[in-house]
Design a protein that fits this description.
The complex is a heterotrimer of chains A (383), B (157) and C (171). Chain B has 157 residues and is of the alpha/beta class. In chain B, 22% of the residues lie in helices and 29% in strands. Chain B has a single domain, classed as Beta Polymerase, domain 2. Chain B contains 3 helices and 9 strands; from the N terminus they run αββαββββαβββ. In chain B, the strands form 3 sheets. A 5-stranded mixed β-sheet of chain B has the order 1-2-5-4-3. The radius of gyration of chain B is 17 Å and the shape is elongated. Chain C has a 5-stranded parallel β-sheet. Chain C has helices at 2-8, 21-31, 42-51, 82-94, 105-110, 142-157, 164-167, and strands at 34-39, 63-65, 73-77, 100-104, 133-135. Classes of the chains: A alpha+beta (383), B alpha/beta (157), C alpha/beta (171).
């Protein structure tokens, strides 16, 4: 230091060239095939330009060529971490257009599998966020627990990741005899691990130093950018469609909508966004417990599934609370068995667009954490 | 506000630029507007007291056969009401004013509508393709789209 | 495999193993393959689960590398789009010989569910780079990943290193 002083150099005189760095599309911490073109001044990020489309799989074109039932597997492959949640708004939209009232048992089963999948999604989100900050153990803990959830969903639907379980008017298969007990066991495991993670990761001082005060998103900016889900709630806006629009039977459950409180850092930073996900896991556990208790034993979940679906002319926009945010489907029907147009409004797609806004002025290493705290899935971004 | 009230308010302010309110079964009620007035109407929808649609849920382009359509699904966080705005443009000159300055979320949605359907948005600050490669030809979600034989020497289908 | 079994052989015991140098080299190569993980889509999530506690992919001696120059094989896990195809080619060319490719999942095997109307999906990664092992499934189960890895190890351990051209009957 002393030598530098003798040379009469000040920081402002140090000429740090602006560089353009390319992150991705093949990069371990871009959570998929996202490409970020980053301009840095020294180590400070001055501009971020996301380039999308490396996983553009022509989803919307497929929808125009497939019958309504055949579309469900493609919807699984959009947000492939939470496939159950994806299918729900789609079948809800079709049920609204066909005017089908699904049985109570189906509604409860949908709530249970969706909340289980929400927990699995948040486990991956928090685990990989920890991984970005350099913590590997939470990743192993969460993936161990996630596997128990996957096993239940596999027993129900037959698939580990992409379930194809929802049907218009019902579900593909009924529950198995030990289902309720197994779900309650998993809920206990999730709670136990979360309690461990609190000490291991969330309140770890290194983790707090890396994530608190990083990537601050104000509520006004979040709403203007159309953010939803934990990204919006991390900024303190209590917007949750499960409560605000109370679709299905969500009005019968007692649960809270966790928002960023600024307990550590400030409201809207990466730590608070992540904390919302951890708290949501607990709320999902509560919903599952209540749903298991209220779920009727009688009833056939496959009874009302129509063999052939012909949707009357019309159009509907249906959205539901995905683990990533609001997932909306805009379906235009022309009276045949195939949609005229199906537009998916992915939560990740909209949430990601806020990245250039909130990562300016932070260090390059923080950019990776900001991206991790937004929790994107490129299948939904690029479709 | 109900769609009827929103329509009456817009009709009072903009006159003939607001064409009609369509409220038929099986369809979310929507207001059809002239493409030239999209920006002004959306501005009024966002800022006027009582409306305050601060959240653009979705912006979709559609191919209607003869014409191209743009559909705006709006939501108000404050009042918790929704409205759908629709406009139609010809395929020869598909030009719609950009609402990117009102809702930043429209930025990527408009780029997507340009990429997949070829709808141009006047006033968009970065009007380039978003999903497909920059040298891709054509707009795949048009009904008459023919996929190219090859792309960079790779067989497409 | 073959080499270790000889240690159990009571007639050639005493810790002495007779074998070819080629066998020794291949034994070493097949048990320590570092890979470049090219996670593209859904299969990559299943591969993450594969790497985690329950399945422990590293038991095969595989270590994930983030640079193609340190990798022995590349795992293409997911849908290859045209926008991505050039990058895969570049990464494959940057890998040092001998190099192998595992194609994971229906999409990278053949285009998968997107083979018919996927205007932006490459119908199989084998159209641009040579593939050694195909793992089927959409996405493949962890057991399928294990089987694929075993197949690759088998392939490596049976390869000719010396007098390759002679053995192949080229000369």
């Amino acid at each position: 230091m002393s030598e530098i002083k003798r040379m009469d150099l000040e920081y402002s005189q140090l000429d740090s060239d602006r560089m353009r760095i390319n992150v991705g599309p093949q990069h371990p911490s871009t959570h998929g095939v996202l490409r970020l073109e980053v301009e840095v001044d020294g180590e400070i990020v001055t501009e971020v330009v996301p380039h999308l489309g490396y996983l553009h799989r022509s989803f919307e074109k497929h929808c125009e060529r497939m019958t309504y039932q055949q579309i469900i597997p493609y919807i699984d492959r959009m947000d492939y971490i939470s496939a159950m949640n994806n299918e729900w708004p789609y079948v809800m939209a079709l049920e609204k257009m066909l005017d089908i009232k699904v049985p109570e048992k189906v509604e409860y089963l949908r709530v249970i599998v969706s909340e289980l999948n929400r927990i699995a999604n948040h486990q991956i989100a928090v685990a990989t966020f920890g991984l970005d900050a350099g913590a590997f153990t939470p990743f192993l803990f969460y993936f161990r627990d996630r596997e128990y959830i996957i096993w239940i969903l596999e027993k129900l639907s037959g698939a580990r990741l992409l379930y194809n379980y929802f049907r218009v008017g019902g579900m593909a298969a009924d529950i198995y005899p030990t289902f309720k007990q197994e779900v309650l066991d998993v809920v206990a495991k999730v709670r136990k691990t979360n309690a461990e993670i609190m000490n291991l990761l969330i309140y770890n001082s290194i983790f707090i130093k890396r994530t608190a005060h990083v990537g601050i998103l104000t509520p006004e900016v979040a709403i203007n950018y159309g953010c939803s889900g934990p990204v919006l709630r991390g900024s303190g806006v209590a917007h949750d469609l499960r409560r605000d629009e109370a679709y299905s039977v969500y009005d019968r459950f007692d649960f809270e909508v966790p928002v960023g409180k600024g307990e550590v850092g400030v409201v809207g930073d990466s730590w608070n966004r992540n904390m919302v996900r951890v708290n949501e896991m607990e709320q999902s556990c509560r919903i599952i417990e209540q749903a298991i208790a209220q779920m009727p034993d009688e009833g056939d979940v496959t009874a009302l599934i129509p063999k052939r679906i012909k949707i009357p002319k019309g159009e509907v926009y249906m959205r539901a609370e995905n683990p990533k945010g609001d997932l909306g489907f805009y379906i235009v029907s022309n009276g045949t068995d195939k949609p005229e147009r199906l537009k998916a409004r992915g939560a990740s797609f909209v949430n990601l667009s806020v990245i250039p806004e909130i990562s300016k002025g932070y260090m390059f290493a923080d950019l990776i954490l900001i991206l991790g705290s937004i929790d994107i899935v490129l299948g939904e971004v690029d479709r | 506000m109900s769609p009827q009230e929103i329509y009456e308010k817009l009709k009072k302010d903009f006159g003939d630029l607001v064409t009609e309110l369509v409220d038929v079964p099986q369809t979310d009620p929507y207001i059809r507007v002239q493409p030239s007035a999209v920006f002004d109407i959306c501005h009024s929808l966002r800022d006027d007291a009582g409306l305050e649609f601060d959240y653009l849920m979705s912006l979709s382009g559609t191919d209607l056969g003869e014409q191209l359509g743009v559909v705006y699904h709006l939501y108000s966080m404050h009042h918790r009401h929704k409205i759908v705005i629709k406009t139609e443009v010809s395929k020869e000159n598909p030009l719609v004013p950009s609402v990117e300055r009102l809702w930043r979320s429209a930025d990527w949605h408009e780029r997507e509508a340009w990429d997949l359907l070829g709808i141009r948005f006047d006033g968009h600050h970065n009007h380039i393709r978003i999903l497909l490669p920059y040298d891709w030809e054509g707009h795949p979600l048009r009904k008459d789209y023919q996929a190219p034989e090859t792309y960079h020497g790779m067989k497409v289908s | 495999m073959g080499l270790l079994n000889k240690l159990d052989d009571p007639y050639e015991g005493g810790g002495i193993v007779l074998g070819k140098v080629e066998e020794l080299l291949n034994w070493g190569r097949s048990k320590s393959d570092w890979y470049l993980h090219f996670g593209l889509a859904c299969c990559a999530i299943e591969f993450m689960a594969m790497n985690a506690s329950h399945f422990d992919f590293m038991r095969f001696g595989t270590i994930p590398r983030t640079s193609p120059r340190q990798a022995d094989f590349i795992m293409i896990t997911g849908t290859v789009t045209f926008k991505m195809a050039d990058r895969i080619k570049v990464l494959y060319e940057q890998m040092a010989e001998p190099k192998y490719v595992i194609s994971v999942g229906s999409c990278s095997n053949s285009g998968g569910p997107y083979w018919e109307h996927g205007y932006h999906v490459l119908k199989g990664v084998d159209l641009i780079i040579p593939v050694d092992v195909y793992i089927p499934g959409c996405p493949p189960r962890p057991e399928a990943f294990e089987e694929g890895m075993i197949q690759l190890q088998k392939k490596i351990s049976q390869q000719a290193i010396f007098n390759k051209r002679k053995k192949l009957g080229i000369e």
